[in-house]
Amino acid sequence: MSRIGVFVCHCGMNIERTVDTQAVAATLSEHSGVVYTTDYNYLCADPGQRLIKDAIVEHKLDGVIVAACSPTMHEPTFRRVAEEAGLNPYLCEIANIREHCSWVHKDRDRATQKAIRIVKTLVEKVRGNQPLEPLRIDHADKCLVIGGGIAGIQAALDVAESGFEVILVEKEPSIGGHMAQLSETFPTLDCSQCILTPKMVEVSRHPNIRLLTYSEVVEVSGYIGNYEVKIRKNPTYVDPDKCNLCGDCEKVCPKSVGSEFERGLIDRKAIYIPFEQAIPSSYTLDEEACLGLHPLRCNECAKVCEPNAIDYDMRPEYIEESVGAIIVATGYSLYPISSLGEYGGGQIPDVIDGLQFERLLSASGPTNGEVRRPSDGKIPKKVVFIQCAGSRDPEQHNAYCSKICCMYTAKHALLYRHAVPDGEAVVFYIDVRAGGKGYEEFTQHAIEEERILYLRGKVSKVYRQDDRVVVWGVDTLSSRRVELEADLVVLAISMNPHPSNLALSKVLKISCGAEGFFKEAHPKLRPVESLTAGIFLAGAAQGPKDIPEVVSQGSAAAVKAVALLTKDKLVHSPEVVDIDELVCGGCGICVDMCPYNALAVNGAGVAEVNEVLCEGCGSCVSACPTGAAQLKNMTDWQFIEMIGVALQDG
Amino acid sequence: MGKIKVGIYWAASCGGCDVSLLEIDEQILDVAAKADFVFWPCATDTKYSDLRAYQDGSIDVVLFNGAIRTQENHDLARLLRDKAKHLVAYGSCAQMGGVIGLANLSSRKEIFTTLFGEKSLWPQEESNQDGYPLHLPAFLERVLPLVDVVDVDYVIPGCPPPKEMVSKFFEALLEGKLPEIGAVFAAEKNLCDECPRERKEERITRIVRPHEIEPKQDSCLLDQGIICMGPATRGGCGAVCPLANMPCTGCAGPTANITDQGATMLNAIASLIGTGLEGEEELEAEEAILAEIDDVIGTFYRFSLAASIFKGAQREQRG
Ligand SMILES: Cc1cc2nc3c(=O)[nH]c(=O)nc-3n(C[C@H](O)[C@H](O)[C@H](O)COP(=O)(O)OP(=O)(O)OC[C@H]3O[C@@H](n4cnc5c(N)ncnc54)[C@H](O)[C@@H]3O)c2cc1C
Ligand code: SF4
Ligand code: SF4
Ligand code: SF4
Ligand code: SF4
Ligand code: SF4
């Protein structure tokens, strides 16, 4: 390449303040192979782009360097400009003299010298570049949604409505997730099930949705647009088409265990339906709880089931599907209450978590909406709510804020006051985080109109005395120690990632942050994408959030998936690894290095790369002991030239 | 047509390369029939003056073995380059400095002090012996591969070059079919290509030396924790070492795409080790595995230290 153009951007004062862009352009004009250089105020602006385009045509440039900001910002812009001027876009490279230079230095002379070196290295790189064509690939047109909480439901409905087939996989016997357990929802106090169940029904009826409950995704291979997934449908031992919901089985079943849906407040039988509006509307036999799964040990339920819906011989079913996109919406769990020993969690029956309180408030709950405490069924006359239980406590518990508990505590206190008008509600808080439309008004309303006592301070200890629960704390505003005797203590427990996240992250090869929530590609600009192309995130699986946020994310992830599925072909960067077949001896060292499983040694004893899977990370290149594996347009030889000019004197 | 004129020279070498020429068995008769050995200090008595008398480019091919350790080696390399039509780097030392190149871990001063003690050396380069001036060739600061001193036309690698490669060369020479300048008389691919042992593409979880285990016959030595240089080494020898339960030590040098054989193999090993733990624990586990490597330079750079990017110690220059 011998006709290279170098365009140096001022980025307003962002670069110009510390880098003498004119000097950079002037020095580069002396560099071998460079025939045209200039500097300009904003190259990314329309006139700047035009300037590059005109120069490419006029000076017959065969390589272009834009010395500007990070390539993550404008590489696509300038490559498009090059393409519009008739130059192969992969012959255009970005020299980052902003993030890597002007922003991190003060001394103008030395920063200018450094910028010159940076640009020179890119000139050397572009000299070794080959024109490349992007890879175009076919894709499957179905979408897999994992998790049937409100996030997954919303995403599934939106994708299905756009005309694409959805496979919705839910681990539990019913969809609905945590929202199905809630009583009323802040800040508007809609009945949670009333607004949720129509959506659940829509899911079950939608012609484009294939619902697989009691199922788990066990294997995923492939890549964006072409994921092969294997789903295990666990046996429910009840044929949903035959089950008529008479409930006769449940009545005769001799085995009881704590109900998950009612959070252990009451028991359910080994054969059960989680809640009345469950979707699919059918009983499930819990094989762990069941006494027998064998007629000789116990077959009470089968005996009474009139439509013969119970089948002890049901086996797990494996379903394989090809999907183009995956949405992960596996939600959250609560920090185990037993981890909060200092608050009597798991030891004192009248210390409960927020979801248990939701069930006590819920009209469909075990007490039909009457607030009665677990120990003796009495109506509590004094309830203490403790916020940040397990949150914002980096020493002992989770460091992060769970974001929703301030709001649901205000809701709990308010609903409690509605249910027990002569009851007294006290809230311990560190501070009240009520950001959101109508949220501050909602808490203020609770505090003022419902006369709820908010005490600012931490609770140090909770213990049982006779049939009461004693709470020790401090009121930091009046600097007083506080000792309260309560009938019931409700812990606003920290939101935890769903326990299946870690295993699922390995199956999907997406990453979790340190706390265990799935990690988004960019916290601001790509909040619903994982770092693996074609896998999107929605809802509390990505971090604590409330229903409005979860639903927005569900829809956002759906749009991302639909945008992918509507494409005729998917485009993949051609800057992938290339194996020199003459040199590769098939040692296979590269194979296990590839985080994307793009490599395999073929029958001829040579490593073969699946270009569509290759993300160009270079891991294999650095491991390959023969130099056979080279990244296109970033070969070792290009690197050596680049290092050479970077270290050159002067 | 007259006979092909062949010269053979040994610089800093062990002598093995000269002997290896005889390994081509009866082919040596063909060679003797068609070629004259005009200069071969190991076998014939020839003086430097005889050599100087040759016209430039008049010796058809010179096989040069050994590294450049002394000024004499250096001068002879220059002289032979002039006289030879084709100069061949014969063996690992000429190609990469070889085992001799490991001396670059020490400076010249350190070598002399270790060998001869602190006292000043005698005789020096120039001295007087019984009234006669004595000139000794200077001991260079560092070992250089032949290719660093003069242009080389072909390489026959190996320590010493294995029979297959040598006979391939003579075949080409006698038939007048020498390949393009720059050719290496070995395989383009790495040794794993011809090694019958099977690699499972597994992570290395421990590192052992060959005597510490009884290696399984068919499975790759690397998979068994023995550092085998095969992946970073050209094939062509028939994988004789792995076949004899010994790891490849890398004598054939790297493939054409690689500049630093040792660093490349270190990279590969660093990539390959792993235990499947996470975070800090994994780092510690990996460090523990790496710590089991007994002699890093001797393992990874046994033949290529003098040709490596860092070339060896520079303590003296650094002061
Ligand atoms: C006490 C309490 C009160 C609340 N009150 C309110 C309120 O009033 N207003 C409000 O806006 N928000 C409230 N919230 C928050 C609300 O519960 C969440 O925002 C919402 O339920 C999150 O929905 P989701 O779909 O992301 O997750 P989830 O509801 O947790 O659903 C996730 C689903 O994925 C399934 N799943 C998990 N792992 C897998 C797997 N590996 N494979 C298949 N399926 C899987 C789960 O079984 C579950 O059905 C409250 C939360 C709590 C704890
Ligand atoms: S949302 Fe409120 S109660 Fe929950 S952790 Fe954050 S500050 Fe504490
Ligand atoms: S590591 Fe290099 S030589 Fe070995 S199989 Fe992979 S590409 Fe081939
Ligand atoms: S460059 Fe990265 S993604 Fe591509 S094949 Fe190599 S290791 Fe895999
Ligand atoms: S034993 Fe050595 S040469 Fe043979 S396959 Fe394994 S690494 Fe390669
Ligand atoms: S196996 Fe390796 S060390 Fe042994 S002869 Fe071959 S190249 Fe040399």
DSSP helical segment count of chain A: 15
CATH-scheme architecture of the largest domain in chain B: 3-Layer(aba) Sandwich
Class of the largest domain in chain B in CATH? Alpha Beta
For the termini of chain B, the CA-CA separation is 58 Å
Average predicted local confidence, pLDDT of chain B: 92
Write the layout of secondary structure elements.
The complex is a heterodimer of chains A (650) and B (319).
Chain A: E1 4-9, H1 21-28, E2 34-40, H2 46-58, E3 63-68, H3 71-84, E4 92-96, H4 108-128, E5 135-137, E6 142-146, H5 150-161, E7 165-169, E8 184-185, E9 190-191, H6 192-205, E10 209-212, E11 215-223, E12 226-233, H7 248-252, E13 256-258, E14 267-269, E15 271-272, E16 284-285, H8 300-304, E17 317-323, E18 325-328, E19 332-334, E20 351-353, H9 354-361, E21 382-389, H10 405-419, E22 424-429, H11 439-449, E23 453-456, E24 459-465, E25 468-475, E26 480-486, E27 488-493, E28 495-497, H12 501-508, E29 535-537, H13 547-565, E30 570-572, E31 577-579, E32 599-601, E33 607-609, H14 619-623, E34 629-631, H15 636-647
Parallel strand pairs in A: 1-2, 1-3, 3-4, 6-7, 6-18, 7-10, 18-29, 20-27, 21-22, 21-27, 22-23
Antiparallel strand pairs in A: 5-30, 8-9, 11-12, 12-17, 13-14, 15-16, 19-28, 24-25, 25-26, 31-34, 32-33
Chain B: E1 4-10, H1 16-20, H2 27-34, E2 35-39, H3 48-53, E3 59-65, E4 68-70, H4 71-83, E5 84-90, H5 92-96, H6 108-116, E6 126-129, E7 132-135, E8 139-144, E9 154-156, H7 163-174, H8 240-243, H9 261-272, H10 279-291, H11 296-300, H12 315-318
Parallel strand pairs in B: 1-2, 1-3, 3-5, 5-9
Antiparallel strand pairs in B: 4-8, 6-7
The complex binds flavin-adenine dinucleotide and iron/sulfur cluster (5 copies).
Short recap of the structure:
Chain A has 15 helices and 34 strands. The mean pLDDT of chain A is about 95.
Polypeptide structure, described:
The complex is a heterodimer of chains A (650) and B (319). Chain A is α/β, with parallel strands linked by helices and 650 residues long. Chain A folds into five domains: 4-134, Rossmann fold (3-Layer(aba) Sandwich); 142-234 and 316-331 and 498-566, FAD/NAD(P)-binding domain (3-Layer(bba) Sandwich); 248-304, no CATH class; 333-496, FAD/NAD(P)-binding domain; 576-631, Alpha-Beta Plaits (2-Layer Sandwich), CATH 3.30.70.20. In chain A, the strands form twelve sheets. A five-stranded parallel β-sheet of chain A has the order 10-7-6-18-29. Chain A has a five-stranded parallel β-sheet with strand order 20-27-21-22-23. In chain A, strands 2-1-3-4 form a four-stranded parallel β-sheet, sandwiched between helices. In chain A, β32 (599-601) and β33 (607-609) form a beta hairpin. In chain A, α1 packs across α4 (108-128), α5 crosses α6 (192-205) and α9 (354-361) runs parallel beside α10. The radius of gyration of chain A is 31 Å and the shape is globular. Chain A starts with a strand and ends with a helix. The model of chain A has no long low-confidence stretch (mean pLDDT 95). Chain B is of the alpha/beta class and 319 residues long. Chain B has two domains: 4-101 and 139-174, Rossmann fold (3-Layer(aba) Sandwich); 191-307, no CATH class. The N and C termini of chain B lie far apart (58 Å). Chain A binds chain B through residues 580, 582-589, 591-593, 601, 605, 619, 622-628, 630, 636, 640, and chain B through 187-194, 199, 201-203, 230-232, 235, 254-259, 264-265, 267-268, 271-272. The structure holds flavin-adenine dinucleotide and iron/sulfur cluster (5 copies).
